[in-house]
Amino acid sequence: MNIVLDVQGLSKGFTMHHLDSRLAAFSDISFDLRAGEFLLLKGQNGAGKSTLLRTLYRTYLAQDGKVLFHSDHGVIDLVRAADVDVTHLRRTEIGFVTQFLVARPRVSAEALVAEPLRMAGWSAERALEEARHWLRAFGVKESLWRAYPTTFSGGEQQKVNLARALILPQKLLLLDEPTASLDAGARAALVARLRELKDGGTAMIGVFHHPDDVEHLIDRVIDLTPDAPQMEDREDVVV
Ligand SMILES: Nc1ncnc2c1ncn2[C@@H]1O[C@H](COP(=O)(O)OP(=O)(O)OP(=O)(O)O)[C@@H](O)[C@H]1O
Ligand SMILES: [Mg+2]
């Protein structure tokens, strides 16, 4: 399968101005990822898992290294890419799922989920139909589809968040503990959708609170625990 991501010598630290010191979140990370591969990030709290995902998504700027993304339009280094290109890639090729829905006032659940399809040129009617399919798949009650998610429970918001984030297949999908507040039914729906996306060629990098959920999807593991061997092949690993 084709290479999607080639990460070379990536390092990120934070300057703590009030302490006049620097904190290294991670340093000299290298790996590559092909279409349809699933990479699990693990490590204790504070090991740098979320920071690595945010650096790959360019929410954080790396200190050093390269993140070569093989986009539909050629290879682009996400560390050095212009903001406008990063924004475009986030809309079309790179997805990021966190534990939190960014709900907007007076935007219904179904409209929020349909939005990525609308932006990709789908008609309003088809987009809404597809949105309702995914809201149902993740277990959002039909009575909530036209309501505003700002008032939903944490788990309900997360289901809307997943429906929106996973409705369109992406080339690269980053996942930061997406199962944290989900019930068993929604966790199963998420794993089924990830399996479908993986089979369709989406490359994924994820942090999971319960790695057992995704056990059969994992191809490789990176352990960010200090002094742990960085990259392990799936065969050698007990998650
Ligand atoms: N914006 C920031 N400014 C300063 N320090 C930060 C910032 N973001 C993260 N850190 C620090 O970087 C380290 C790694 O944090 P990170 O959130 O990546 O950990 P994690 O592995 O995701 O942990 P958890 O399992 O708790 O989610 C922590 O010590 C954290 O305090
Ligand atoms: Mg984290």
UniProtKB/TrEMBL annotation:
Stored Pfam families: ABC_tran (PF00005)
Gene3D superfamilies reported in the protein's UniProt record: P-loop containing nucleotide triphosphate hydrolases
Coiled-coil positions: none
Signal sequence region: none
Organism domain of life: Bacteria
Protein name: Phosphonate C-P lyase system protein, PhnL
Lineage, broadest ranks: Bacteria, Pseudomonadati, Pseudomonadota, Alphaproteobacteria, Rhodobacterales
GO CC, alphabetical: plasma membrane
Organism: Celeribacter indicus
Stretches assigned to the ABC transporter domain: 5-239
